[in-house]
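So, can you check what follows?
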Amino acid sequence: MTDKKSKNADIVAVANAAKVSISTVSRSFNHPGLVNPATRKKIDRAVRKLGYIRNRAAQTMHGIRSGTIGLVLPTIDNTIFAEVIQAFSESVDAHGFTILVASHGYDLEREYAVLRKFLEHRVDGVALIGLDHSDETYQLINSQAIPAITIWNYDAASRLSCVGADNWQAGRLAAQHLIDLGHREIAVVFPPVAGNDRARARHDGALSVLSLHCSDLPPSWTQQARYSIADGKDAVINLLSADRRPTAILCGNDVLAVGAIHAARRLNLSVPEDLSVIGIGDFKGSKEMEPALTTISLPARTIGQIAGEQLAQSIIQEDRQIRRTDCAISLAKRDTCQVCTT
């Protein structure tokens, strides 16, 4: 077939090549779960052979879904959201949707601007991370009546549907583990909490325990660091360089915890013999590192899978009901924490 014929291939040609009806081809694109897998394979072979490309712009003009979902993330600069994104993408893909991804750098004004661009491109639904969003963002979602969901943090009173974990409980659980091991000299290293409900909830949960058991902790033992191993390392080197050292460090996520371990090594301190370290998240690689990181396990794949399924169904069924799903967390006891002997 010539290039010209390939470019001119239409849905009728695909249907004829696959020996199915035009409506079956359309259904295979828009509702793949409703089409027999063998039939979908025939249609896919025809599409590949003919080089057929759907005209999404024309479909949108006629009120047909664009087949895209906008996913707005705080950052794509590290692995924090990688697992949840992958599971979310797989989940919506099973229903015929493709995700468009953008980041806002923890800037809620930029998040609003990104959301507007997604809506201009007629996405069928949007997914946001966490519960901290500007009033303009919430208003835009409501005014456009677009299916939307928030991922990663659970709140029984959320303004939008949410699928996530109780991050306050995650912070509390991490702190309680250190207390149970006998630690009372505990420092905390967290990312900035402004505009970040996940970090803020974990921080508040940790302090709810530490305030009951740890007294007279130096202000310098509360450090902030951005989401990077290097920044976590620098913050902890600064913390450990003082005359008085903590016996344990509680980090707001696994990335900062890895930085803390590197900092300890730089100062010739052993983990956990000289310093216990605990993270939150249980990201990929946390279990495999040496020593294996003690952390609070957040079910990232489960969160992404459920969020994708719920948003896809909300779009397909035109269901705007708010749903809130709390995914269970757990303590992953590994090798970077031990009983305090001092």
About this structure: The two ends are 79 Å apart (CA to CA).
